Amino acid sequence: MSNQEAVTVQHQVDRHRFVVVTQGAEAVLEYHLDGQSIDFQRTFVPPALRGQAIAEKLVRTGLAWAKTENFNINTSCSYVVKFIR
């Protein structure tokens, strides 16, 4: 996969995560909800999928969703911090 636009992010609401499944592997952005607050806890992209902007796509999708839902956004994931400064 060489084109970032080919990446499809799925929101698995029941599992509190955003997922990209491609090339037989799964990349995730996990979160925790507490009332009107959301904490993005973990971003993981398997080594075979790194360098393809998948983590960025996951985070941007998760943050956009959180904003539309009017959540107070927090993060314990160091990667997500880069996007909320």
Quick recap:
The chain has 85 residues and is α+β, with helices and mostly antiparallel strands.
Question: Would you write up a description of this structure?
Answer:
This protein has 2 helices and 5 strands. It has helices spanning 54-68, 78-81; strands spanning 10-12, 17-22, 25-34, 37-44, 72-75. Strands 1-2-3-4-5 form a 5-stranded mixed β-sheet. The model is unreliable at 1-5 (pLDDT under 50).
Shape descriptor reads globular
- The proportion of strand residues reads 35-45%
> Structural class of the helices, strands and pairings?
alpha+beta
Q: Mean pLDDT across all residues, rounded? A: 93
Share of residues in helices? 10-25%
Q: Let me know the largest β-sheet.
A: 5 strands, mixed
Give Rg in angstroms.
Answer: 12 Å
Strands, count = 5
The tally of helices reads 2
The sequence of SSEs as H and E is EEEEHEH
